[in-house]
TrEMBL record:
Pfam families: ATP_bind_1. This is ATP/GTP-binding protein. Keywords: GTP-binding, Hydrolase, Nucleotide-binding. Residues 1-10 have a biased composition (Polar residues). Residues 12-22 have a biased composition (Basic and acidic residues). Gene3D superfamilies: P-loop containing nucleotide triphosphate hydrolases. Residues 1-22 are annotated as: Disordered. InterPro entries: Gliding_Motility_GTPase, Gpn, P-loop_NTPase. The keyword Nucleotide-binding applies. Belongs to the GPN-loop GTPase family.
Length: 205
């Protein structure tokens, strides 16, 4: 009896592996980009997004002077009040959707909604004020979400080795710590690739 799964009629074409790969639906995953105020989250998302990134930047006013410390970022005039959103295709079948969190404490109530469904998080750090990323580290540790630490190295600041930052932040040995520049696409991609790999390593077989 003829196998009903095979089409051997005249004019039929055997599908090649590459054709099957092209027809395969891409895997879409959600990633959160977190960290302290003014650490570069909006820049991080914007530097790799293949679509026009969605930002919710608002002009800072005198009303925020008592809550937003601008000592390390004196030229900052806007702040994220809801989230940043972007998309990047790492491979033909892997699409990352990036959600940047607001850094100020008064907007932390939105984090639970932004994190829901994410496979992991990139926690950005500024070595001039490492303490600003402690709340994000504590949050992801407490909820068990995989994360990596991406040190945004600003021009004119002292360079620190990843292991020195790990020790200063008391980050577990299995968590990747990278030094990057949020303005440079290749280093941002490296951070995202490290997170995806780390999340996969922690996924039960």
């Amino acid at each position: 009896m003829e196998d009903p799964q095979r089409n051997t009629g005249e004019g039929s074409e055997e599908r090649l592996p590459r054709q099957e790969e092209r027809d395969r639906a891409p895997i879409a995953v959600k990633i959160v980009v977190a960290g302290g105020f003014g650490v570069g989250k909006t820049t991080f998302v914007g530097s790799v997004s293949e679509i026009e990134p969605l930002t919710t930047e608002a002009v800072m006013t005198q009303a925020s002077e008592d809550t937003d410390d601008l000592t390390a970022t004196p030229d900052k005039t806007t702040t994220t009040v809801a989230m940043d959103f972007g998309r990047i295709t790492l491979e033909s079948d892997l699409v990352l959707y990036l959600f940047g969190t607001p850094g100020q404490r008064r907007f932390w109530f939105m984090w639970d909604d932004l994190v829901r469904g994410a496979i992991g998080a990139v926690v950005m750090a500024d070595t001039r004020r490492l303490e600003d990323c402690f709340p994000a580290l504590d949050y992801f540790e407490s909820c068990g979400l995989p994360y990596v630490v991406a040190v945004n190295h600003f021009e004119g600041t002292e360079y620190y080795e990843p292991e020195d930052v790990r020790e200063a932040l008391s980050v577990p040995a299995q968590v990747p710590v990278l030094v990057m520049d949020a303005r440079k696409r290749d280093t941002v991609v490296d951070s995202l690739t490290a997170l995806v790999g780390h999340a996969l390593d922690l996924t039960p077989a």
